[in-house]
Write a structure and sequence with these properties.
Structural class: alpha+beta
Number of helices: 29
Strand content: 15-25%
Distance between the termini: 146 Å
Length: 879
């Protein structure tokens, strides 16, 4: 039995050995066949990988088909803290996972797009899964930022395009440099695209994809780093042991070592026998926190993909832009830094622009897929500068899209000055005329306020616009005439000059009481009474009787003029100087009241019959004294003493005229005349209510030396800055000191100014303007500007631009091509003729005879006289 069992056991062992040998032989044969036919194995692996990659790409493309896009627009006060920005980063990381469970990881990302294409200095967009829109729409940034649903951007092809992908280089476990929030971390990127020119097709875009870190990839990366750290530590220990042994051997073999050895032998001590025992250093324990660095903790760790694309239609500009952006990213570099992916071979660089990586770059760029390099692990704290739009601490350039370039002859633009861009190139900039409602310019004398206003007015005139330039000192007229001396402008220019230059100067004429232009009677009375009250500081509390007497007298004289015009005799109208005759000449008063009794209401007739006779004679002196001063000046007597005045500011508004008004001084008489002119301008503008808003022709009054003008009519000027916008009259004012203006005027100016500008001056004077800008720039900075430099805040497309520093336009430079100095005498003659100017002596003689003409008219139109023919308007004056 034992022999049988032994036999069976032997047979079993023999069979098992044979099977093992057969299996080994088969494996060897298979390996030999695969080795001989390795290409078949490679093809099979490649096919499987390609099929898997195709499936993953199709799934990722399908998952990315529905993406949302949000554009974040900060206001001027956007200044988030570190905690707020960090919370936004957490939102972005969480939103990156708002995808279906089956979506490949490359499609689970949120993309930050920083784009500069000429429409804005740097547009900030967020794109990502559609499921993350609700999470990302409500930001922790608060009310200082506006979140808008953005449409897809379609770019036109450019002739030259460069691409780049940035990866982290250096010590990969070390964080990027901690960049402070002031100045803004985005400032280097903004500076890199600040000289972008949209007309050349320039485009620069940065895309930062954020993806939550997968746990398995993080564990694998940690194992790799720990293994590398341990290997490095072992190599370091081995190197130290090798150097230690070499040092020990060197010491024993040296003369000193041998001498020490002989001395120890003679002393009989056996301790020195043999070679010294050297203990090799033990490898130091690797600390995970030290080896893993920023990868040691799982919290707020993300993978990022940084892609950059620059394009232009001009060769070389795209490459230069990419180099600028590369330099801008160096700001974030420390022990770890951003560097372009690829290799450099002499003058050539192999990167995202070349095969085979270009196709992958364009696929990721188009679909928004995130496939970052293994090294691109960062913590949210490192991305602080890129997780928010530009803040208040970012200095943004002024692009052509922000502030349009001035084009001569364009009626839609209003010249503002010369802006020198970051590239040093000057550009004439403008605002849109329909948005420039009111403008205020301040600064010291000779700083360039008037020159800037003249350049703007001349450009507006050449574009076909109408304006009135009120200059008490007349200096602006000879400065502007060489650039207005054009044949197509001369028929529209009128000069009302009351400075009386020369032996027998020519003076225009104006009858504030004239009704030959079809004015409304009560509006004329109200305008003159208000002008008197403003110039003489009258009101219902301080001078009620004087105002009552003046209004009653004006009501009668306006009624007389209305009747004269309807009778076809406008040359027999009364003037403001007939107030004296009406109050002091009983015969004239009786005739006037009798002639217009049917035109006066019961209350007015009752006042003349019941109240007037009770007034003492000295009650009229306060009313007649200002009129007497006007009559004593031959120029104002000639200007205001004509029955049919040529000056008609309403006609000037509607016919796009260019009117220069030089009142001639700032004394009491001049202030009263200025007040009359200003109030008439306000009345004429308000009278445009009879015209539909879309048919009202834009008109621009320019007021030089507001201190002088508002001294005469503060409430009138304030009302202009408050009301005239409705009637498409847009006021421009210049003054040296805002603090010298009356409070109502100053408040109205600052409240309604579409454009606020200042030149250099004292810090105290400038502080009132810089305070409106939040002292940015500071008064100290503005006070040290050079001559003709301005800080200006402007309104463009409904938002404020600036304050930006502009150089005021100089007429001899900006309009050099339009200068016609040889045509100035012809312009002077044409402007005076258009204003109906006649020699002073002739007008003075006419004014002296007007009282008799009015008296004759009243006598001829007693109540029993024949009815006069109706005439609502007359063609006298400007047409």
């Amino acid at each position: 039995m034992d022999s049988v069992a032994s036999y069976l056991t032997h047979q079993t062992d023999t069979t098992a050995s044979g099977e093992v040998l057969d299996l080994a032989s088969g494996l060897i044969d298979t390996a030999s066949w695969l080795y001989a036919h390795w290409y078949l194995l490679a093809v099979a692996i490649g096919v499987c990988w390609g099929a898997g990659e195709a499936v993953v790409r199709a799934m990722a493309a399908h998952a990315s088909a529905e993406r949302m896009a949000l554009e974040l627009v900060p206001n001027r006060h956007f200044d988030p803290g570190l905690e707020v920005i960090f919370r936004r980063g957490v939102q972005l990381a969480r939103a990156s996972t708002a995808m279906p469970w089956w979506a490949p990881r490359r499609s689970k990302a949120v993309q930050i797009r920083l784009r500069a294409d000429g429409s804005a200095p740097l547009r900030y967009r967020i794109e990502g899964p559609a499921g993350g829109e609700r999470l990302l729409s409500i930001t922790p940034f608060g009310p200082d930022i506006t979140v808008n649903r953005a449409r897809p951007i379609v770019d036109e092809p450019r002739e030259h395009t460069v691409r780049a992908e940035f990866i982290l280089r250096g010590k990969l476990t070390a964080p990027l440099r901690e960049v402070p929030l002031d100045p803004d971390p985005l400032q280097p990127l903004v500076d890199a695209v600040s000289d972008l020119r949209a007309e050349l097709g320039d485009l620069a875009e940065i895309r930062l994809d954020i993806q939550r870190a997968p746990k398995w990839a993080l564990r694998a990366r940690r194992l790799q780093l720990m293994s590398a750290a341990r290997r490095s530590e072992r190599r370091e220990a081995q190197r130290s042991a090798r150097w230690l042994r070499q040092d020990a051997s060197g010491i024993e073999d040296s003369w000193s070592g041998q001498l020490q050895h002989l001395l120890s032998d003679r002393s009989g001590s056996g301790a020195g026998a043999g070679r010294r025992l050297v203990m090799p250093p033990v490898p130091r324990r690797v600390e995970p926190a030290e080896a893993l660095g920023k990868l040691a903790e799982d919290d707020h760790l993300v993978r990022v993909q940084l892609l950059v694309m620059c394009a232009s239609n001009t060769e070389g500009r795209a490459q230069a832009r990419l180099a600028q952006l590369q330099a801008a990213f160096d700001v974030f570099g420390g022990r770890s830094r951003w560097a372009m992916r690829g290799w450099r071979l002499g003058p050539w660089r192999i990167g995202a622009d070349q095969w085979p990586t270009r196709h992958a770059f364009e696929r990721r760029w188009t679909l928004g897929h995130c496939q970052p390099p293994r090294a691109n692990w960062v913590r949210l704290e490192e991305l602080t500068g890129l997780l928010k739009p530009p803040t208040v601490n970012c200095r943004l350039p002024v692009l052509a899209g922000d502030l349009p370039t001035f084009t001569f002859g364009d009626p839609g633009l209003l010249l503002q000055g010369t802006y020198r861009g970051p590239d040093g190139k000057p550009r004439l900039v403008a605002t849109y005329a329909e948005e420039t409602l009111f403008e205020v310019g301040t600064g010291k004398a000779g700083g360039g306020k008037t020159e800037r206003a003249l350049a703007q007015a001349i450009g507006w005139a050449h574009a076909g616009g109408g304006l009135v330039f009120v200059d008490p000192h007349r200096d602006s007229w000879p400065r502007a005439t060489p650039f207005l001396s054009h044949d197509h402008l001369m028929p529209r220019i009128a000069l009302v000059d009351l400075n009386a230059l020369g032996a027998n100067p020519k003076v225009s004429s104006w009858n504030p009481l004239g009704m030959h232009h079809g004015q409304t009677a009560h509006e004329v009375v109200e305008a003159i009474a208000d002008a008197y009250g403003a110039a003489l500081a009258w009101d219902d509390a301080s001078a009620p009787r004087a105002l009552t007497i003046l209004v009653a007298a004006l009501t009668v004289l306006v009624a007389v003029n209305e009747k004269a015009c309807q009778a076809g005799r406008p040359a027999d109208q009364a003037t403001i100087f007939h107030v004296r005759a009406l109050l002091t000449d009983a015969g004239f008063r009786t005739a006037a009241l009798a002639a217009v009794a049917d035109r006066l209401d019961e209350e007015s007739r009752s006042w003349w019959t019941a109240v007037f006779p009770t007034l003492p004679p000295d009650a009229f002196s306060v009313v007649l004294n200002p009129i007497a001063r006007l009559a004593a000046n031959p120029v104002t007597r000639a200007f205001l003493g004509q029955p049919i005045g040529a000056y008609n500011i309403r006609t000037a508004m509607d016919s796009r005229m260019i009117v220069w008004v030089c009142p001639g001084g700032n004394g009491p008489t001049d202030r009263l005349l200025t007040a009359l002119l200003a109030r008439d301008l306000l009345r004429a503008a308000r009278s445009r209510r009879d015209t539909p808003p879309e048919q009202r022709v834009p008109f621009r009054p320019y007021f030089d030396e507001l201190i002088t003008l508002t001294g005469a009519a503060p409430e009138t000027i304030a009302a202009m800055f408050e009301d005239l916008r409705k009637y498409r009259c847009h006021v421009h004012g210049m003054t040296q000191l805002l603090s010298r203006l009356p409070t109502p005027v100053r408040l109205s100016l600052l409240q309604n100014a579409s454009t606020l500008a200042t030149t250099a001056g004292s810090k105290t004077a400038i502080a009132a303007v810089t305070a409106e800008w939040g002292d940015n720039p500071s008064p100290e900075r503005v006070a040290t500007m050079e001559r003709f430099e301005h800080y200006v805040s402007l309104t463009v497309r409904g938002r404020r631009v600036g304050p930006v520093q502009l150089r005021g336009p100089h007429l001899d430079t900006v309009f050099a091509a339009q200068a016609r100095p040889g045509r100035v005498p012809a312009l002077e003659r044409a402007a005076l003729d258009k204003a109906g100017a006649l020699p002073l002596d002739e007008l003075t003689a006419r004014a002296a005879k007007q009282l008799d003409k009015v008296a004759d008219f009243l006598a001829a139109h007693a109540p029993a006289g024949a009815a006069a023919a109706h005439q609502s308007k007359d063609d006298h004056g400007w047409t």
